[in-house]
Amino acid sequence: MTTASEPRSPAPIPPEVAADLARLPRERLPALLRRMPKAELHIHIEGSLEPELIFDLARRNGVALPYPSVEALRAAYAFTDLQSFLDIYYAGASVLLQEQDFFDMAWAYFEKAAADNVVRAEVFFDPQTHTERGVPFETVIRGLHHACQRAHAELGISAQLILCFLRHLSEEDAFDTLEQALPWRKYFIGVGLDSSEVGYPPEKFARVFARCRELGLQVVAHAGEEGPPAYISSALDVLQVQRIDHGVRCLEDAALVQRLAASRMPLTVCPLSNVKLKVFERMADHNLPALLAAGLCATVHSDDPAYFGGYLNQNFIDTFAALPQLGATEAYTLARNSFEASFADERSKAVWTAELDAVLHTLAPSRAPGPNPTQDRVTP
Ligand code: ES4
Ligand code: ZN
Questions:
Q1: Which residues are catalytic?
Q2: pLDDT tens for each residue of 285-303
Q3: How far away, in angstroms, is 59 Cα from ligand 2 center?
Q4: Is-contact 224 231, C-beta < 8 A?
Q5: pLDDT > 90 fraction of the chain, expressed in percent and rounded
Q6: Residue 44 Cα, ligand 2 centroid: separation in angstroms?
Q7: Beta carbons within 10 angstroms of residue 202's beta carbon
């Protein structure tokens, strides 16, 4: 049996892959980033709601918006911290009322994900944002599930849902949400913890997460985005999570870094989000290179792409453009880490890894021809 404390190592990079990585010229790095198959493990589906769709749904549902136009709404996306974003994010979600609305939102996301070569998506949703407004849980999950099914059938994306509890609400409220979700147990693979972090430590949700683990659900939690490294430690110790969402503040605690690296605990890092919410002032200040250099299983994701300036490929492109320490080996490692960190079955992971290796091989210039015996032969 595997335990969380058992040391684990990353799969080594095979020599043929290492040779392709070494030959890839820097100018082909953007093509590699775009064309790599990858897993999206940190996307809030409500954060994929584009202003145009917010306005369409408001019109369709007769909801009044406090902004006169798409442009005015977009202009309000100037955040100073996590809370300033969440206020606008929850307001945007208020246009979602019918099952079709949830389907339309998720389908629009999956079309974008397919264009970014996402082969696996583990999608967060926030039921309490909707049930609090009187939208039945069933309406939310039916619409999202239908979009996941269609994403698999029509786009070849393996898509699953993860239910997030809002940490600014009570544990009792989370238990109540879990109760409403259980008839739909087959429609989601796990639970997460999101919303305002500072002042709402993981300990608050110890009992509901214990219940979720008993039910066989996968468990993840946001920690160490704005909150201190101690929140990462308690997400591990108290909630016994299998991934940390964000986790970038772990570098403030060397012993924690050791622990995360030794256990290959994934950190689902969202670079554009971190810059927009001022976790880092500029992309050039992001600690992703340091996380990778420390041997951590970091991955790159998009968080709330409609609000933070781009989807998955944009996160990769902007991050690598601003951080010259990141090259082809880091790109490959991030894609591999995304499969390793996903909750998909091992067979699917092996298929995606082989596809990744094939994309890299196509982009790497072919080897210089070796000595050819027929050419060396002296013809009379
Ligand atoms: C979130 Cl960036 C972020 N952090 C915490 N909770 C969230 N919910 C949606 N986006
Ligand atoms: Zn998030």
A1: 225
A2: 999 999 999 999 999 999 9
A3: 28
A4: yes
A5: 93
A6: 6
A7: 25
Nearest C-alpha neighbor of 180 from the set 204, 202, 163, 200: 163
DSSP 311: -
Residues with CB under 6 A from ligand 1: 44, 47, 82, 89, 194-195, 222, 225, 273, 303-304
| DSSP of 73-112 | HHHT---SSHHHHHHHHHHHGGG--SHHHHHHHHHHHHHH
Q: For residues 53 and 92, what is the distance between their CA atoms, to the nearest angstrom?
A: 10
Taking the CA of residue 222 as reference, the ligand 1 atom at the shortest distance is: 5
Residue 224 zone, left/alpha/beta (φ > 0; ψ -120 to 50; rest): left
Structural domain boundaries in the chain: 36-362
Q: Taking the CB of residue 30, how many other CB atoms lie within 10 A of it?
A: 15
Q: Which of 337, 322, 221, 220 is nearest to 275 (CA)?
A: 322
CATH class of 36-362: alpha beta
Distances in Å between the alpha carbon of 372 and those of 364, 366, 369, 376? Answer: 22, 16, 8, 6
pTM of the model: 0.95
pLDDT tens, residue by residue, 244-258: 999 999 999 999 999
Q: Percent helix, strand, coil in the chain (nearest 5)?
A: 55, 15, 30
Residue with tokens 């019109």: 59
